[in-house]
Design goal:
The complex is a heterodimer of chains A (about 260) and B (about 475). Chain A has about 260 residues and is of the alpha/beta class. Helices cover about 35% and strands about 20% of the residues of chain A. Chain A has one domain: NagB/RpiA/CoA transferase-like (Rossmann fold, 3-Layer(aba) Sandwich), CATH 3.40.50. Chain B is built from 21 helices and twelve strands. Classes of the chains: A alpha/beta (about 260), B alpha/beta (about 475).
Chain lengths: ~260, ~475
């Protein structure tokens, strides 16, 4: 079987042959990259915080266009009422949530007054495979998955979620209803701005510090509920992932 | 490679006789065209981004060894494994080895043209591993033992009634012919498979060299399931899919879904970076990337170089007057449509497309629709030229064209031929066109009309006008 050296050597020899070939004369140019993405991302966040209302309105419009359900509340204490109402209308009893440290707030007892049993995901790694399996079964059996949001992209109505400790990937995937809670700090206007944050997050990891921040191996851009049009192009929601995605905006901000 | 038993002409003719197929194709492709147009209409920066995306592809290709090296380093730094497959057989062997070593019995797959290309499912079955396609369209055609007929909508050739019958037969479930209900059943069936599978197999829409990230774009969420739940994740990717950075990635994301389905983004864009990290609850314990050549590398310096920029969005299929009539299966290979002809030539050599290279009117609609502006018609003509050089046409046809070329380059002879032609065409000219020529020439007029030589040719007219002046 070919190894790395032989594989790349062959590519190099074809590249040498390529000069002058039709199409090779095309202009080649990469997208401009921020030199210090973390700094630029921080500056951008401050700028965006000043005009968050317009960004939020644009996000709401686009999020609703992709069949997301938008809710706005004044304070973190209002969030359990919204989740409680969602649960009641859908006859849901079981919820799972990111760890309070990852969400920035603990709603478990408030949600229980709405008849919703909420299990928070563990803050740190679970070494035992048996325990991991048990937690996965719990997520798979839940009706509602409550998560935070790392970025809310106005241009596309997307929620960007990073996996990691206390924030399992399947919280926003296995339960039929996904409820994401965010505040103005998550808002960005465009995919291009989201790109700066993607660069910034990886700048951290290239310095080997990402494990300290507890971030995982996956970043998801979630743009509306799971959907398909594979049978006669009829749009159907909730194929494998959630049927409904709710985004709750907290004007007063989330803690943490 | 699966042997094709019927020639393209017969496959195309069979497709043309299938009234349902043609209706389904018209509805589907028209809808895709409208959705794409609407998406770009409200996105004025789209045109410039298409140029930028193409420039990124080109710049990457100019330093492909460098970016692949970077990608490999970064994946290995994360504890992932990279494998090198020169051929489809190599790729199958690599994946079967992984399956065997990890004791995998059940594999869940998210939609991947690369794994269709290497005919992985058949190989897995033979090795005792059950592959389950989890994209709804792919699941349907897997149950029906068929091949995808469209790059992004594999089952557009099936009615809901046919799907209901299929589910009844294969899943032993009585079910109404209602897309919503059929989807619900597939959700239940496949949920169990996701949770039970040992092995998750995906393709890759992109791989970001700078971070060692594999990017999957899906609407159903199956890509997320397949990369999060099984113990082992194997991604199969053509070498041309690597891009340098996250800044480049967002350029492609801005145009890919718009070109494919008219969405601003697909429901899920999933960035996977290696195996499960410490502190994570889920994710594969083992992550493998299979880098696939299978004819691609040869084209870096070949006539099909531009086709290496393809994003597999399917936009060129929808606008192609040939695809719209005959659908994907008639092409006979993994990749249908205009880009599919080029990819077939890339994978199987120019001899595989001696007929297919002509399954195009060269109208240029594909070039207009392509998000990265691949000049498909130019390369189709190149393939036809290669056909000529390899003398694949029948001897008679070659002779006729050689004589014709001689005529065209000798004005006096050409004028003489025009006047002779005017006489000779008389018995065959009806309603302003030459029809039903005898013998070898009949091959031409069998499927198309030939415009007759004009009463007065352009050169004759020019000469008389000059005299008048």
């Amino acid at each position: 079987m070919t190894d790395r050296a032989a594989f790349l050597d062959r590519i190099r020899s074809e590249m040498a042959r390529a000069r002058g070939v039709g199409g090779a004369a095309q202009r080649g140019e990469l997208a401009p990259r921020p030199a210090r993405p973390r700094e630029i991302a921080e500056t951008l966040r401050r700028e965006l915080a000043e005009r968050w209302r317009e960004t939020l309105e644009k996000f709401r419009v686009e999020f609703e266009r992709v069949a997301g359900v938008y809710h706005g509340v004044a304070s973190v204490d209002d969030v359990p009422d919204v989740i409680g109402a969602i649960a009641r209308e859908r006859d849901s009893r079981r919820a799972i949530a990111w760890h309070p440290a990852a969400l920035g707030v603990d709603w478990r007892s408030a949600l229980s007054t709405h008849g919703l049993t909420t299990v928070a995901m563990p803050a740190a790694g679970v070494e035992s495979a048996v325990e991991r399996q048990a937690l996965r079964d719990l997520i798979a059996a839940a009706d509602i998955g409550v998560t935070g949001v790392d970025l809310a992209v106005a241009e596309t109505g997307s929620l960007v979620l990073r996996s990691g400790s206390g924030r399992p990937r399947s919280t926003s995937l296995l339960p039929p209803y996904h409820v994401a809670v965010f505040d103005r700090h998550a808002l960005v206007e465009s995919l291009a701005q989201a790109g700066i944050f993607l660069e910034a997050w990886h700048e951290v990891s290239s310095e080997g510090r990402e494990d300290a921040s507890g971030r995982g191996g996956v970043i998801n851009f979630i743009t509306g509920p799971s959907r398909t049009a594979d049978i006669e192009l009829t749009l159907t929601r909730g194929v494998h992932g959630p049927k409904e995605v709710h985004a709750i905006f907290v004007e007063g901000g989330l803690g943490g | 490679m699966t042997e094709l038993t019927t020639p393209f002409r017969q496959r195309a003719a069979a497709a043309l006789d299938d009234a349902f197929l043609r209706q389904a194709l018209t509805i589907a492709t028209t809808k895709f065209i409208d959705l794409r147009r609407e998406a770009f209409d409200e996105f004025p920066e789209g045109e410039a981004l298409r140029d930028r995306a193409r420039a990124i592809k080109e710049a990457t290709l100019q330093r492909l060894d460098h970016y692949l090296g970077q990608l490999i380093d970064n994946i290995e730094r994360r504890g992932g494994h990279v494998h090198y497959a020169d051929t489809a057989a190599d790729a199958r062997r690599i994946i079967l080895d992984i399956a065997r070593r990890t004791g995998a019995r059940l594999a869940v797959k998210s939609k991947s043209m690369a794994t269709e290309e290497i005919e992985l499912n058949e190989a897995l079955l033979e090795a005792g591993v059950t592959p389950v396609e989890t994209d709804l369209g792919e699941y349907i055609i897997q149950l029906a033992h068929e091949k995808p007929s469209h790059i992004i909508a594999p089952a557009i050739h099936k009615t809901k009634g046919q799907v209901a019958e299929l589910f009844a037969k294969e899943l032993k479930r009585e079910v109404a012919a209602d897309p919503e209900e059929l989807t619900r059943i597939a959700r239940v069936e496949l949920r169990d498979k996701f949770l039970a599978a040992d092995l998750g197999i995906t393709g890759a829409n992109f791989a970001v060299a700078d971070t060692g990230t594999v990017v999957l774009v899906t609407n159903e969420g199956n890509g997320r399931m397949v990369t999060s739940l099984p113990r082992v994740h194997v991604a199969v990717m053509g070498v041309e899919k690597v891009i340098p950075s996250m800044s480049d990635l967002v350029v492609f994301l801005a145009i890919l879904a718009k070109s494919a389905t008219g969405q601003k983004l697909s429901s899920y864009t999933t960035l996977v970076q290696g195996p499960r990290r410490a502190g994570e609850l889920e994710g594969a314990e083992e992550f493998h990337l299979v880098l696939l050549d299978n004819g691609r590398v040869k084209q870096i310096g070949g006539t099909l170089r531009e086709a290496l920029a393809c994003l597999r969005c399917g936009a060129c299929l929808n606008v192609c007057p040939v695809y719209r009539q005959i659908g994907g299966h008639a092409y006979g290979y993994t990749y249908p449509g205009p880009i599919g002809i080029l990819l077939t030539a890339m994978l199987h050599g120019g001899e595989a497309v001696t007929d297919l290279a002509h399954a195009s009117s060269l109208c240029g609609a594909c070039l207009d629709a392509c998000p990265v502006r691949i000049d498909i018609p130019r390369m189709l003509i190149e393939l036809r030229n290669e056909n000529v050089e390899h003398e694949v046409a029948p001897r008679g046809e070659r002779l006729v064209f050689r004589l014709f070329a001689r005529l065209l380059t000798r004005p006096r002879l050409f004028r003489l031929a025009a006047s002779l032609g005017r006489l000779a065409q008389r018995p065959f000219t009806r309603g302003g066109a030459i029809r039903g020529l005898p013998g070898l020439f009949g091959e031409w007029t069998r499927t198309r009309d030939l415009p007759p030589v004009a009463r007065q040719t352009f050169t004759e007219r020019w000469a008389s006008l000059e005299r008048e002046a």
